[in-house]
Design goal:
- The protein is mostly helical.
- The protein has one domain.
- It contains 5 helices and no strands.
- The chain has helices at about 5-20, 35-50, 55-60, 65-75, 80-90.
- The longest helix is centred in the middle third of the chain and has 16 residues, at about 35-50.
């Protein structure tokens, strides 16, 4: 079982871009602010590029009521998050989760 690394990196790249938008509200998420959210996405992206995707952490990040969804709900892009989450699920569909 494997992860579609290219698809996963595309999701993370798009997520990073969305999290940089002005006006995002991080108050209901576990991220203290945009910098913390971006740093986490960058660290996870580096792990994926290195061939060691932290699937549990990534799954939490994109989970319903996970930190990215919380930002999306309070920032007005909830539908866009659902598309990202579907793409994430497809990218890891063949992976064995821990």
């Amino acid at each position: 079982m494997s992860v579609d690394t290219d698809a996963l990196m595309a999701v993370l790249t798009d997520t990073h871009a969305i999290l940089t938008r002005q006006g995002n509200d991080f108050s209901w998420s576990s991220f203290p602010d945009a910098d913390a959210a971006l740093q986490e996405v960058e660290e996870l992206s580096a792990a994926v590029r290195a061939g060691d995707p932290p699937l549990l952490m990534l799954t939490i990040l994109f989970a319903p009521t996970g930190p990215i969804q919380e930002v999306s709900l309070s920032s007005g892009w909830a539908e866009e998050f659902l598309v990202l989450a579907d793409r994430f699920d497809a990218a890891i569909a063949n992976a064995a989760l821990p």
